Fold this sequence. Notes:
By secondary structure, the protein is an alpha+beta fold. Helices cover 50% and strands 28% of the residues. Helix 1 runs parallel beside helix 3 (56-86).
Amino acid sequence: xxxxxVVASFYGIILTILALLLYPPLLRGSLVESYSxxxxxxxxxxxxxxxxxxxxxxxxxxxxxxSVSLTAATLILAAFLFLNGAFDAHPPxxxxxxxxxxxxxxxxxxxxxxVLNISWNQERVEETLSVSRKTFSVVEPGDSVRxxxxxxxxxxxxxxxxxxxx
Length: 166
């Protein structure tokens, strides 16, 4: 059962990443990044700890309960993020943003990106957005741009992938 929970948690994390790609939350750092991979590693760490100390049989119920709880948490997080964007019926809003910096990412999903300070609900939120090469070549740090922000079905704002030049 523990192996099934770890596999289900892995799928939950994959689904969370997919939801993040489809509907990237504006306040991402506070919710998603702090929990996603910890939820997969915690049951493995508990299992390894008890296995190494030869007490797994004694605490197997505890380990299973933790594994089932964390598996449910990963799947609920993925569902929340996806449904927040999929059921969002609110009209999108254009938010002002200031370009902090720009860079080209390396690796498999390489491409140009902008670091933006977005004004949303009287706050400044810093986000990194992938942009087209045309937008990347036109925009410089210090420029003002606009980003499409969707309020979200469950009041967790998410942003569109396009940057509107002023």
